[in-house]
């Protein structure tokens, strides 16, 4: 379980930049409530938190790192149809968070058919609230994840920018948009719908982000009422 401190919680207030721990907490909640054992089981989606993604991106050891987190089996399962990973522009192995967050969405089919030139991975989409600011980091993460998803020699498809995703109107909401994108992609009937989605782009993105921040504050407050509170 992710331990959330007061300073982590405070980043959920409007105008604050979400840190890696809050994003990890939210993704864990999404995974537990929407992915595991859901009615969408045949379209299983694997979620990777910022710490795992940063380590994979910088070391290239996706197979080993995902195995350590018990994620290798789910990411490589024939039942898995999609993977969402948090992208950071940081180049530091010790600091997952840099100055900008975005979301990488990898979609794949059940099996690889390398003899016919068809990799298991269908495509890789980059949902970025700053119009592709993290495109190079997203490409690096996708390339590093490739061996853990499919061991065929076929090159990973080029990461494409998701043109329809909503854009942030300030310098602090990128992490909140990552969570907004993640929730909407997980809620899609199938990852096959991802390329056509306008994630967060329904004309009220800023309001949706404020609601998301408030919703996760309430969730943490509810959980804290039943658990020990740690001051930092």
Write the topology of this structure.
Blueprint: H1 6-10, H2 20-35, E1 44-48, H3 50-59, H4 62-68, H5 72-76, E2 80-88, E3 101-108, E4 121-127, H6 135-149, E5 159-161, H7 174-187, H8 205-224
Parallel strand pairs: 1-2, 4-5
Antiparallel strand pairs: 2-3, 3-4
Helix pairs in contact: 2-7, 3-6, 7-8
Pfam family, one: Peptidase_C48
Keywords: Hydrolase, Protease, Thiol protease
Protein name: Ubiquitin-like protease family profile domain-containing protein
Q: Total helix count?
A: 8
Distance between the termini: 18 Å
Enter the CATH topology name: Adenoviral Proteinase, Chain
- Tell me roughly what share of residues is in helical segments: 25-40%
Low-confidence residue ranges = none
User: Looking at the structure, what is the overall shape?
Assistant: globular
Strand order of the largest sheet: 1-2-3-4-5
Give me the CATH architecture, please: 3-Layer(aba) Sandwich
Which radius of gyration do the C-alpha atoms yield? Answer: 17 Å
Number of domains: 1
The arrangement of helices and strands along the chain is HHEHHHEEEHEHH
Q: Which band does the percent of strand residues land in?
A: 5-15%
Structural class of the helices, strands and pairings?
alpha/beta
Q: What is the CATH class designation? A: Alpha Beta
What's the rounded overall pLDDT mean? 83
Largest beta-sheet details? 5 strands, mixed
Q: How many individual β-strands?
A: 5
CATH superfamily annotation:
Adenoviral Proteinase, Chain A
